[in-house]
Amino acid sequence: MKKSTLLLPNINLRPSQIHKFRGFVGNIFKEHDLIHNHDDQGKPIYRYPLIQFKLVGGTPAVIAVTEKAVAVFSKIFMKLDKIVIEDNVIPIFEKDLQIEEAEFGYSDEIFMYEFVSPWIGLNQNNFRSYCDADRSDQAEKNQILKKVIIGNILSMSKYLDYRLSKDQKIKTDHKLKEKKVNLKGKTMTGFSGIFKTNFLIPDYLGIGKSVSRGFGAVRRVI
Q1: Is 178 left (phi over 0), alpha (psi -120 to 50) or beta?
Q2: What is the rounded CA–CA span in Å between residue 75 and residue 206?
Q3: Are residues 113 and 93 both part of a single domain?
Q4: Domains in the chain, number
Q5: CATH code at 33?
Q6: CA distance linking residue 134 with residue 174, whole number of Å
Q7: CB-based burial of residue 138 (10 Å sphere; 0-12 exposed, 13-18 middle, 19+ buried)?
Q8: pTM, whole model, 2 decimals?
Q9: Count of CA atoms in the C-beta half-sphere (13 A) of 173
Q10: For residue range 190-199, what is the model confidence (pLDDT) as tens digits?
Q11: DSSP state for residue 14 in the 8-state scheme
Q12: CB burial class (10 A; 0-12, 13-18, 19+) of residue 52?
């Protein structure tokens, strides 16, 4: 899979400002819906974001995957000479652009990943099931989270036009802990920690909700 990463080393942003970074760039390049994921009427386009904004080791970054997104990405992001966050104009003096072929897909091996930003995996339905699980039965809650991780991977794969064969089954295990996060002004339950799976995910791509805003970014540990 083609992947490009643009790092902005001279800029300092807080995690809570990443969505404003994305909003600024999306507003400048309105003609490219791959950035802001809205149609001409302003309605959300529900798909896996091919261009994602996040912090990588504390450095603001923009990541694009697939040939189509990398082509758009390379064309426009090298033109950025500033960003505006909360009325503060921040000049961009340094850019680090990396383009690579990243491995993506099913594997016979098991890999360990860590969430480098909180994972928001639960939706309204499975959050209710998670909360209804007996507090003393952590195994039930763990099973729910396992299924959600598998579902997130399958959903990402679908939108990236990757299909598993009938005999390819995703396995997963995890060691996660709850973490309160703020999303669009609302407090939600997120998770931090590690998980294992037999699926290759490029570093810093996100799974779960709001990955375009930096949530659910993963990094391979082993």
Answers
A1: beta
A2: 23
A3: no
A4: 2
A5: 3.30.70
A6: 19
A7: exposed
A8: 0.92
A9: 3
A10: 999 999 999 9
A11: -
A12: buried
The DSSP result for 135-150, as a single string, is TT-HHHHHHHHHHHHH
Q: What is the dihedral of CA 39, 163, 205, 130, to 10 degrees?
A: 90
Residue 158 is part of which domain span?
105-220
Q: Token pair of 75, please?
A: 């064309």
Q: Compute φ and ψ for 16, nearest 5 degrees.
A: -70, -10
Q: What is the DSSP annotation of 58-110?
A: TEEEEEEESHHHHHHHHHHHTT--EEEETTEEEE----EEEEEE---EEEEEE
Token pair recorded at residue 174 = 């995890």
pLDDT digits (tens, 9 = 90+) for 14-25: 998 999 999 999
Between CA 4 and CA 44, with CA 85 as vertex, the angle to 5 degrees is 65
Token pair belonging to 142: 């763990």
Residue 35: in which H helix or E strand, if any? Answer: helix 33-36
Contact (CB, 8 A) for 103 and 200: yes
Amino acid identity of residue 149, one-letter, is I
